[in-house]
Specification:
The chain is 27% helix and 33% strand. It has a single domain, classed as 60s Ribosomal Protein L30, Chain: A, CATH 3.30.1330. The protein starts with a strand and ends with a strand. The strands form two sheets. The protein has a five-stranded mixed beta sheet with strand order 4-1-7-5-6. Strands 2-3 form a two-stranded antiparallel sheet. It is globular and about 45 Å long. By secondary structure, it is an alpha+beta fold.
Length: 160
Amino acid sequence: MIRVGYGYDVHRTAAGRRLMLGGVVIPWDRGLLGHSDADVLLHAITDAVLGALAAGDIGQWFPPDDERYRDADSAELLRTVLRAPCCAGWRLGNVDATVVAERPRLLPYVPAMRRAIAALFEAGEDQVSVKATTSEGLGFAGRGEGMTAAAVVLLVREGR
């Protein structure tokens, strides 16, 4: 048995914040604004996992008005979901994710993001695809006002 989930997230850019993407610190003069560390890529992946299992969404699991999650490590949020009873018996088939950002150039960091995400799932790097693209200067992402990420996750029932 397999399950497929889709996740999407968006965050504004902001001065004075560290940029975290896919569990990796990206050197840049801006970061993403959010209640947690605002890792837009891990948030999209987390929502995709939850969607595959019909287990709600990241905002239900980690409400943005809950002070326990202020500046939370998004990798730890994903780990929490992956350790939850709803994920028992499921393993990663693959994840395919895309980050949309005009700046900074993300390609040099994609291998580190793939490694970090694979480690969270205890999976092989060949099961994790991370792509980076721009919006060709269009919209809020094109103006550098924010970033988006989308992810599709395939989960496979263990032992079947």
